[in-house]
Amino acid sequence: MNDNSDVSSVAQTGVGGLDDVLAGGLTKGNLFLLEGDPGTGKTTIAIKFLMAGTDVGDKGLYITLSETEKELRRGAASHGWQLSDDISIFEVVPPESLIEADQQQSLLYSSDLELGETTRLILREFERIKPQRVVIDSLSEIRLLAQSSLRYRRQILAFKHYFSRHGATVLMLDDMTSDALDKTVHSVAHGVIKLEELSPDYGAERRRLKVSKYRGRGYRGGFHDFTIKQGGVTVFPRLVSSEHHTKFARHQVMSNVEGLDALLGGGIEQGSSTLILGPAGTGKSLFALQFIAAAVARGEKAALFAFDEELGLLFDRTRAMGFDLEAMRDAGLLQIEQVDAAELSPGEFAHRVRARVDMAQAKTIVIDSLNGYQAAMPQENALILHVHELLQYLNRQGANTFLTVAQHGLVGDMKAPVDVTYLADTVVLLRYFEALGSVRRAVSVIKKRTGHHEEAIREFRITEAGLKVGKPLTEFQGVLRGVPTFVGNIGPLLGASEGGERDA
């Protein structure tokens, strides 16, 4: 996105994240279209746009042809907002909603008025208020009054030229309820913002927006997730990793587990990503937590995003292995978030991860697991692009990222739900194997971009003291297939005296 914003020439919308997408806001003195189906948040954004104007001394005028002033004020109050005297609401309502019409000075009968009369009264109200910001809600009513595409276009052009001469910034709302898909305003407007609501098969609705047009200005293209909650609309701009660069010193980061660090060639590189693959129960989360514990021991901050496991169970389970995650959290060194994939959009998740890195200064990020992340984004291609941008961003901030992926199956040929091994800088593979009548676990590093690593396969155990990694299994063949062939003595295997086995 080109940064060609000039604060003095734009009217900020006041909507979190939207001004970033718009390269600062809406250029003053122009007409903009905000379109979307009913319920997508147009009115909420429009009210916030007028409220942001009062913060900088701009008067606002809300011209409503569909809702009453009472409804608008009630909607604002639901977000904790109270509209100031600098925001005027001018109603256009059907006559059956009135009881004492002669006492209502701001009410018009849209069904009884011709377009010309409606326009004249709107402009008269504008001249009386002399606002700098105007909202017209909605264009569907004007389209019905116009009755023809030609007259409708001429009316929109007349509004555009009139408001432009008076230096007003205008936001026109269109609920897209007309039968015909009329693109008249698209060609007339200086910019067009489209809101969409998606309904997945399961989980909460997802909302997103995109700027489809903005004359003479660079903006952040593509779709951007957003939410409507108490407090208004929050937009999560699409993450573009190339826009974020931070200088940091590269050095090796260790796990403080001797055998694992040896397997990794001394550790992993600062500012790199690690993917931990393996079937369920092999200890993927524990490997990632080992790096969190090492980071906290160094006095660094870390963040854990748990998609799959309930936090209470995670705390109890890991405490028995020597990891007191609650103590780390209470000390302010570990940020832990329980992520509900059914309620969270990928854009909002990326925003949360960025917040932990930018504001909390976390240098170790664990996403457990990518399977849960995929549940939030079932389209595989889009998931890979999201993960790519997120990993690139975290790498450029000097953060160490650990992602876990559960593979299908327990032994033999296994597949991950989505292949992202080529995205990660380091890939750690965990496997079950059978030896001497018992089920054992093995770990190997199959990829490391940032330096050398052991090509050996080592056995590991999960003990009350955490991970215990043994010597290379030089006397077994076929460990990764899950059915190894013994070709020597039992020397390399971990004995029972080296720590009791625990479930991962």
Beta-strand content:
25-35%
Radius of gyration from the CA trace? Answer: 30 Å
Overall geometry comes to elongated
With helices defined by DSSP (H or I, 4 residues minimum), what is the helix count?
14
Quickly name the level 1 CATH class of the largest domain.
Answer: Alpha Beta
Unreliable spans are 94-105
Largest sheet entry: 9 strands, mixed
- Percent of residues in helices comes to 25-40%
Q: In the CATH scheme, what's the topology name of the largest domain?
A: Rossmann fold
- Mean of residue pLDDT values: 86
Characteristic key phrases:
504 residues; alpha/beta; Rossmann fold; nine-stranded mixed β-sheet; 14 helices
Question: Can you walk me through this structure?
Answer:
There is one protein chain. The chain has helices spanning 18-21, 42-55, 69-78, 115-129, 139-146, 149-165, 184-188, 258-263, 284-297, 311-319, 325-330, 346-358, 370-376, 380-396; strands at residues 10-11, 26-27, 31-36, 60-64, 87-91, 133-137, 169-174, 191-198, 206-214, 224-229, 232-236, 252-253, 268-269, 273-279, 301-306, 334-338, 362-368, 400-407, 426-435, 438-448, 457-463, 466-472, 476-477, 485-486. It is α/β, with parallel strands linked by helices. It has 2 domains: 7-238, Rossmann fold; 243-494, Rossmann fold (3-Layer(aba) Sandwich), CATH 3.40.50. Helix 5 crosses helix 6. The radius of gyration is 30 Å and the shape is elongated. It starts with 9 loop residues before the first strand and ends in an 18-residue tail after the last strand.
